[in-house]
Design a protein that fits this description.
Blueprint: E1 5-6, E2 15-18, H1 24-32, E3 37-40, E4 45-47, H2 53-64, E5 69-72, H3 75-87, H4 91-99, E6 102-105, H5 108-116, H6 130-140, E7 146-150, H7 164-170, E8 174-178, E9 182-184, H8 190-201, E10 206-209, H9 212-224, H10 228-237, E11 240-243, H11 246-254, H12 267-281, E12 285-287, E13 290-294, E14 298-301, E15 304-307, H13 310-320, E16 327-328, H14 329-335, H15 344-357, E17 363-366, E18 370-373, H16 377-389
Helix pairs in contact: 2-4, 3-4, 3-5, 8-10, 9-11, 13-14, 13-15
Length: 406
């Protein structure tokens, strides 16, 4: 039998979903080092564009008539463009054309890709924000200027359509969009289906996103599976969506899903931000003389991570949603995986839960009524304001609609 583990690391007992397709292993390592368990399901697949006819056509047009200004928005996109041109035997010609253009980089990654191509950027905003690049150009005036804009990728109804190019056009610029890369859903959708299900049923404490296309892909898949609304509701109430930056967060914010993000759009900063936010949003409560913190797949009792069965977690989450209040056996039965029609199943699961916690007095039996977490009523009142202010990690179970994939 596995012994309980001391929760000495900030993410001990927490489970974090990773949707990234690039550098996912590196990101997972950063989280695991902080004590987290991770679930990985790449949400997108980047399509190589060495044989993309539209990109080749635009590249030839830029070589023939170099733009006055070229804007690099992403490192991976700019590198991909240079690599594609090399495959067509046009890398040298493209390099000369870009060298005669004023190069602007949206952020450090784009700047690094420019320099890796033996080019130099003229300017890059400290904010790493497209809006500041746009303001910079509009201040100096763009009327009559030919401007090449490297696009982020494809857009969908959930991924905001970039108005960057349109604003420049309205200001009088001749804009040349450069479709450097596109994305599609992964060939194997099963891992993403499992990730979506984990969010819907609350088996994750947080889900992380490092690109807007990853958000869009996950939302599209959930919609196809008939669980989009349960997915969004779970991210609004109990599974914390963490995004690397504002562009990534935009599709969720538009759907009224609150997100959190680090001050700097970096993987390391994202991992540190998760390690700060999850413990803050899952403050322990005093129950039956013990310190108790309910996570997605375990319970931390007096600083010790206690493994709990899925049935036990279902009961614990339902009780924790109303700490100190009595929850009937019928309600607890409905929360059990698979449900049932015999409340004896609740009593059996409760016995096992108490044993797993190693603290039987944390949960009180209320004769003829049900069960309650042994939380002091004063503490419940004080904690309620905090719970209202932050995204709650564990709420009462969300029901998956009939006819959905799950």
């Amino acid at each position: 039998m596995t012994q309980p583990a001391e929760a000495t690391e900030p993410l001990a007992g927490f489970t974090v979903g990773i949707t990234a397709s690039r550098r996912a292993e590196e990101f997972a390592t950063l989280l695991v080092r902080r004590g987290a368990s991770v679930m990985h399901a790449p949400a997108i697949r980047i399509i190589p564009l060495a044989d993309d006819a539209e990109l080749e056509r635009v590249t030839e047009a830029i070589i023939a008539a170099p733009p006055e200004i070229t804007i690099a928005t992403t490192g991976i996109g700019f590198r991909g463009w240079i690599e594609a041109a090399e495959g067509w035997g046009q890398a040298e010609n493209l390099g000369r054309a870009l060298a005669s253009s004023r190069l602007l980089a949206r952020g450090p990654k784009a700047k690094g890709a420019i320099r890796a191509a033996d080019l130099r950027e003229e300017w890059s905003p400290a904010s790493e924000c497209s809006a500041e690049v746009l303001e910079h150009l509009l201040r100096e005036g763009v009327d009559g200027k030919r401007i090449a804009v490297q696009l982020h990728g494809a857009t969908t109804e959930w991924e905001p359509v970039p108005d960057f190019c349109e604003v420049l056009r309205e200001a009088g610029a001749d804009v040349v969009p450069v479709p450097v890369y596109r994305w599609t859903a992964p060939d194997d959708g099963a891992p993403m289906d499992r990730m979506i299900e984990a969010v819907v049923v609350g088996d994750l404490d947080a889900i992380s996103f490092t690109s807007a296309p990853a958000v869009a892909s996950l939302l599209m898949r959930a919609d196809e599976n008939g669980v989009l609304e349960p997915l969004l509701q779970s991210m609004r109430t109990r599974v914390l969506p963490v995004c690397v930056g504002p562009v990534t967060a935009a599709p969720l914010e538009q759907l009224k899903v609150p997100t959190t993000q680090p001050a700097r759009a970096r993987l390391g900063a994202l991992a540190r931000h998760i390690a700060e936010e999850l413990p803050r949003r899952c403050a322990p409560m005093d129950a039956g003389g013990h310190s108790l913190s309910v996570r997605s797949r375990c319970v931390v009792v007096d600083g010790v991570v206690r493994s709990v069965s899925p049935a036990g977690m279902a009961l614990m989450k339902t009780l924790a949603a109303r700490p100190g209040r009595v929850v009937s056996r019928d309600e607890l039965l409905a929360a059990l995986p698979g449900g049932g029609d015999d409340t004896h199943a609740v009593e059996t699961a409760m016995t096992r839960l108490r044993s797993s916690l190693g603290a039987p007095k944390v949960i009180h039996t209320v004769v003829k009524r049900g069960y309650r977490l042994a939380v002091d009523p004063v503490e419940v009142t004080e904690k309620s304001a905090e719970a209202e202010a932050a995204t709650v990690s564990h709420a009462s179970p969300i029901r998956i609609p009939e006819g959905s994939k799950y």
